[in-house]
Structure formats: structure tokens, C-alpha cells
Specification:
- The structure is a single chain.
- By secondary structure, the protein is mainly alpha-helical.
- It has one domain: Arc Repressor Mutant, subunit A (Orthogonal Bundle).
- The chain is built from 4 helices and 2 strands.
- Strands 1-2 form a two-stranded antiparallel sheet.
- The longest helix is centred in the C-terminal third of the chain and has 14 residues.
- The chain is globular and about 30 Å long.
- The N and C termini lie far apart (about 30 Å).
- The structure holds FE2/S2 (inorganic) cluster.
């Protein structure tokens, strides 16, 4: 069974070891994808996470717009 913490702990970028929860936290602090990348190293390795992370942040902007 999946709970909220399992989702937050899910690694979205294995090159940098960045979790979904970390990306969400930085998004909530007002960072865009480039800012999150500078902070965590997402998208700076193989680039394989790029599409997933862009879709995740796009979805966040729809369901949880920056205030
Ligand atoms: S999985 Fe994110 S850069 Fe490789």
C-alpha cells in the first residue's frame, strides 16, 4: 500500500538522488525547474528524468499554483 510519505520519498532523478518531495518543497518555495535544478542537480546528469519532472511541475502549477 502506498501512502503520502512513500510518494514523497520516491526518487525522481536517480543521478542526483532527488525525491519527489524535495522537488515539491522547492516548488513551494517559489523555484522554477531551473532553480530546482541548480539547487539539487536534477537534469544535470543523464537527462532521463527531464520529461517526468517537467510533467510533475506542470501538474503542480495546475493543481497547486504558486501563491
Ligand atoms: S535521472 Fe536526472 S539527470 Fe539522470
Amino acid at each position: 500500500m502506498t501512502n503520502e510519505n512513500d510518494v514523497a520519498d520516491e526518487i525522481m532523478c536517480s543521478c542526483s538522488g532527488t525525491t519527489r518531495g524535495k522537488i515539491y518543497d522547492l516548488y513551494k518555495q517559489g523555484l522554477d525547474i531551473d532553480g530546482i535544478s541548480q539547487r539539487t542537480g536534477i537534469k544535470t546528469g543523464c537527462g532521463g528524468c527531464e520529461w517526468d519532472i517537467e510533467e510533475f511541475v506542470k501538474a503542480l502549477k495546475e493543481i497547486d499554483p504558486p501563491s
